[in-house]
Amino acid sequence: MNFLEKIISVKRKEIYNNKILHPIKKLENSSYFNRKTFSLVKNIKNHIGGIIAEFKCKSPSKGIINNTGSIEKVITDYETSGVSGVSILTDKHFFSGKKENLKKSRSIASVPILRKDFIIDEYQIIESKSIGADAILLIARILSKNQIYNFSKIAKSIGLEVIIEIHDEFEIDKISENLDIIGINNRNLQTFIVDHNNCLKLYSKISNHYVKIVESGIDNVDYVVKLIKQGFKGFLIGEYFMKKKDPGKACKHFIESLSKKLNKIDQ
What we know:
46% of the residues lie in helices and 16% in strands. The N and C termini lie far apart (54 Å). With 267 residues, the protein is of the alpha/beta class. The longest helix is centred in the last third of the chain and has 20 residues, at 247-266. Strands 1-4-5-6-7-8-9-10 form an eight-stranded parallel β-barrel, surrounded by six helices. Helix 4 packs across helix 6, helix 4 (71-81) packs parallel to helix 13 and helix 11 crosses helix 13. It contains 13 helices and ten strands.
């Protein structure tokens, strides 16, 4: 059993238990379920650099990244820094994430929130809306084209935007209707190796109908400038900020530096 298969196995058990503890009817009665969502797509287009800053305490490849950061402080500081949105890891077993972190973030933030998890069941889509998410991530590597189509249709029907995460050329074929953002992951989910040129190799093979963003391995302002020149609109950054003592301060400095460099180019 490879790593992704192990994750899916654990996730299936987790979903089975959650369906019993929190049935869909209960989720639909959540105070967040009928709220009007914020658009991550619009925010990416309207904010400098389109930075989506992630709250991420742990990863399978790096272990503990940050186990002292307060969700309330980090999210508040991210928003003040001028991010387009925030991403919250909710996978508990492998990333030490919590759905409660997303709920807390929703109660204090007025920027779009992306729920980052391994979504393999429509139950999780309903759950995402019920805990305050504005967008969900679908990982092409673990879903069929048909699943992606159906899941994105359900998401759109309840007001959620959808990011599909792809890593290689074969996964481009899984892109279907109802998707808002194509996220190209520079990290191979099987080997965890980061290839900074991966997004550049795939950029032109994806329709410009979609907003294109880059995920993983982003720790350099000059690299982001290079990708913006290529045409990318947004960047999901988690580890680079979270491994710092003050993630919000690191995010603010990054966006300020990026803004200065982009202004010089425009002059």
